[in-house]
Amino acid sequence: MNLVRLAIAGSLVVLQYACVTTTETLSAPPDSNAAAARHNSDGIVHYEMGHWSIAKDHFASAVEADPNLAESHYNLALALDKLNLQSEATTHFKKAAELAPADSAIAESSAYRSRTTPPSPSSFGTSGYGEMGGY
Description:
single chain, 135 residues, mainly alpha, Serine Threonine Protein Phosphatase 5, Tetratricopeptide repeat, globular
């Protein structure tokens, strides 16, 4: 009986981790502006602790120190997203991708794609009762 409980508990833990989607923040490259890199690093610390507003402030300071640092725009977008500031988040996701188009960590992230990929035509309800004709 204890073996069954252990197996069930283990399965639940695995299922929990499989269902959790984590979005990784991005570190500034080594050759970045020192102030921008410091704010970006401080923002990452607060983001990982769940301090979204403080993280947002640090990432915004990093963007102010170096407007061309894609990683800070991306991280700022993540924090804005956590604060439900979707429009602002989308703006910074797009700016990050514009500044670093070859960075797969940005372009392939689910957070970025969910804000920048248009919905497919099938999601507009083009089948069933909403179709034209067929009366």
